[in-house]
Predict the 3D structure of the following.
Amino acid sequence: MKITSSAVSLNVDDVPASSAFLVEHFGFREEMAADGFASLTRDDVGMNVIFLRRGLESLPADQRDEHTAGLILAFVVEDLEGELARLRSEGVAITMRLTDEEWGERAFQVRDPNGVIVQLVDWNAPTSR
């Protein structure tokens, strides 16, 4: 098998709202869009983020009415504090404060208008105890 690209598809109620959030605050661009569908990309991200409107007839019946839940859309960034300051200055609510975990993860979270959790992360070597 050769994988040529990857994507994550998220069912939401308001596709344009989630799409606009990633475009405005995270530098994505819409690659394709139609009624109930948007595929977003960035040149420096190895995957697309796809939003599908809940209830979309093209979805299998057992997935059609599901809403994105229990999923964290995480992006590793170089300047975590800078991104935190930028998002705050843009009026984005920080829904999980900046945390430092003993295994080396530093992260904070925001939510898009549909409740999709977006986490920005950087990794440090774990501190020895």
Remarks:
- The two ends are 42 Å apart (CA to CA).
